[in-house]
Design brief:
single chain, 665 residues, Glutaredoxin, 44% helix
Length: 665
């Protein structure tokens, strides 16, 4: 065991071709840590894997002295924090640089593979050209990221390999494999010279060579599975497998659909890695089975390549609206897959330009364009669900009323005693360790993601200027501060922007360690567990809840509700694990997961009032129900929580506009 590892026992559960598992192996190699590697058969998962990652049942899992850490990016951060004395530091020391690295790591996982997916699906040269152009667009954005992070040095981490190098480097072997399979140079010397040079340097590092799979083996894996799929395509099979809507970094759930049977959950299927085959049935193969459309069985082992997100098929004339209060789009079971659409942006695979339709930005799809959007694909079958659209609209109010943070009750006493608001702000910043720090938050009042940032600022006792954004006419400050996504929230600290709500919350805790309560736990393993449940909140719980409220039919809403209940039961276990019998996820005081989940509480209460039910039901999730009651009564939460009645009115207006729009379409 290297360096400060002492008697540490490290075991990694992985799959050799998985870029996610490779990330972890690269991090361990760079840190000089020895470990036991266990190759998992994803068709017959070990009890160790199932018990170590009971939520997702996926690789990679790192087990350190018997304690599991799940999710590749979380594991890489954990390795850097738990073994800080070994090898080079992967995460930057500066809090803002760390926030930037986390932002781009999220971009790599969320955007890069959406661009790669159509390359595997393309049937015509035109489709391949469109997919290639989209891939180049993402690569060019990553080129800017490399320029920003490296500051002219060899790696994203500067002179030495860092966190982003490891995250992107996990896919290095597949970059070469895709070039051999499809003749596509994703990192092109003419368009992305920095990335080309970076890739060459990265794969030549000794620590990377030790663990990097041979790209030729990946090519052979893909070809072998492709051959298996072709051979199985002639087989008859009366069973059908559909696709559930909850996508988590390329992972999906499966349903068995048999003639006359009810849909039932089969659980999470194997992790979808590069090299797994892609099947795209001809529309003639699809037929109606019950109230869904299914495709005949074509192969037993065909799954999505590259852990790419999936998106529903469109229907003729379908319109995709924008969920403005969340700052992201909502398409059927893929809420958040499409960001806020602007007049010059395109949907899915880059089809028709988004147009203005009354108060809504929409994307219209004509018949010949239907197959260009990504269909659901999983194992050997296909299910086509109608496109679900959630349309939202901004409200109008006097944003000048929201330019300052409302003080807590304790702070009001300070104001009253000092009789000087300016003096109070200066004193609060001094107590927080902020000195002359200038904080500005760009947001939208009803966004739960913006509320997270407000909650973190409130719990940390930090003053800031709040700027309400008009999504119909976004400010130059927003567009320049978040040029990649162009959405809120954005925190600007002394002129430096930080984007994405979970990144912002972590940044505030790291940049202001002496202010208020510490949100992230001090122990590296507890930090990793908190990050896992925070990611689960967004990637599973929030998406399931939105599906339950936005389904077009009662059946779809019921299915979304079933998934939301399942996610809540898992979240209940998460609270039990994190709190250790104390009031909050953070223990005796509010922590990171409390803030992340707490951002949704106002909407949970609004939904309860509108539907006459309790999302956090004391009968099924008593810990969460008690937690929610405690959280909303905290002074720091009350100071920033939006009024529930106002949210209800906002939701009713949105529903009425959506209903009116449906009657005209």
């Amino acid at each position: 065991m290297a360096g400060g590892g002492g008697g540490d026992e490290l075991k990694l559960l992985g799959m050799w071709a998985s870029p996610f598992a490779l990330r972890v192996r690269i991090a361990l190699s760079l840190k000089g840590l020895s470990y036991e590697y266990v190759e998992e058969d994803l068709k017959s998962k070990s009890e160790l894997l199932l018990s170590s990652n009971p939520v997702h049942k996926l690789v990679p899992v790192l087990i350190h002295d018997g304690k599991p850490v799940c999710e590749s990016r979380i594991i890489v951060e954990y390795i850097d924090e738990a073994f800080s004395g070994d090898g080079e530091s992967l995460l930057p020391a500066d809090p803002h640089d760390r926030a930037v690295a986390r932002f781009w790591a999220s971009y790599i996982d969320e955007k890069m593979f959406t661009a790669w997916m159509p390359i595997f699906a393309a049937k015509t040269e035109e489709e391949k050209a469109e997919a290639t152009n989209r891939t180049f667009e993402v690569a060019e954005t990553l080129e800017r990221a490399l320029r920003e992070c490296s500051r002219g040095k060899p790696f994203f981490g500067g002179d030495a390999v860092g966190y982003l190098d490891v995250v992107l480097g996990g896919f290095a072997a597949w970059v070469y494999a895709i070039e051999e399979l499809f003749g596509l140079k994703q990192f092109d010397a003419a368009r992305t010279p920095l990335l080309v040079a970076w890739l060459q340097r990265f794969v030549e590092l000794d620590a990377v060579k030790e663990v990097m799979p041979d790209s030729g083996s990946l090519v052979e894996l893909h070809k072998a599975r492709q051959a298996q799929a072709a051979a199985a395509a002639d087989d008859d099979d009366d069973e059908f497998v559909g696709v559930r809507h909850d996508v988590h970094h390329g992972r999906v759930r499966a349903e068995a659909i048999r003639p006359g049977s009810q849909v039932r959950d089969l659980g999470v299927v194997e992790e979808l890695d590069a090299g797994d085959l892609l099947h795209r049935p001809d529309p003639s193969e699809v037929r109606t089975q019950g109230n869904v459309q299914v495709a005949d069985a074509v192969a037993a082992e065909v799954v999505l390549p590259l852990a790419a997100p999936v998106c529903p098929e469109t229907l003729d004339g379908a319109a995709v609206g924008v969920a403005r209060e969340y700052g992201r789009g909502a398409i059927g079971g893929c809420p958040g897959l499409v960001d806020v659409l602007h007049d010059d942006e395109r949907l899915g695979d880059g089809l028709a330009v988004v147009e203005q339709n009354g108060d809504l930005l929409v994307h219209r799809v004509v018949p010949e364009q239907q197959l260009a959007l990504l269909p659901y694909r999983l194992l050997q079958h296909l299910v086509l669900h109608p496109l679900q659209v959630q349309r939202h609209q901004d409200t109008h109010f006097n944003s000048s009323l929201l330019t300052t943070q409302r003080p807590t009750k304790a702070e009001v006493k300070l104001i009253q005693s000092s009789r000087d608001l300016q003096s109070f702000r200066q004193r609060r910043q001094a107590m927080a360790g902020g000195g002359g720090d200038e904080l500005k938050l760009l947001g939208m009042w009803a966004s739960p993601y913006v509320l997270r940032a407000k909650l973190a600022l409130s719990f940390k006792g930090l003053s800031y200027e709040y700027v309400e954004e008009d999504f119909k006419n976004k400010s130059e400050l927003l567009l320049s501060s978040n040029p990649v996504h162009k959405k809120v929230p954005v925190l600007i600290h002394n002129g430096k922007p930080v984007c994405e709500s979970r990144v912002i919350v972590q940044y505030l805790d790291e940049a202001f360690p002496g202010a208020g309560v510490s949100l992230l736990p001090a122990d590296p393993h507890e930090r990793a567990v908190a990050r896992f449940w925070a990611a689960f909140t967004d990637d599973t719980l929030a998406k399931a809840s939105q599906e339950a409220s936005s389904g077009k039919t009662e059946e779809e809403k019921a299915e979304g509700e079933r998934k939301a209940v399942d996610a809540l039961e898992k979240m209940e276990r998460g609270l039990r694990e994190c709190s250790k019998g104390k009031p909050f996820f953070g223990g005796d005081t509010v922590g990171y997961v409390d803030v992340v989940l707490g951002g949704f509480l106002a909407w949970v209460l609004a939904g309860d009032a509108m539907k006459g039910v309790k999302r956090f039901d004391p009968a099924t999730t008593p810990l969460l129900a008690a937690w929610a009651e405690r959280f909303v009564e905290l002074d720091a939460a009350k100071a920033v929580m939006p009024d529930v009645d106002r949210l209800i009115e906002f939701a009713k207006v949105m529903q009425a506009r959506a209903a009116a729009a449906d009657t005209t379409n």
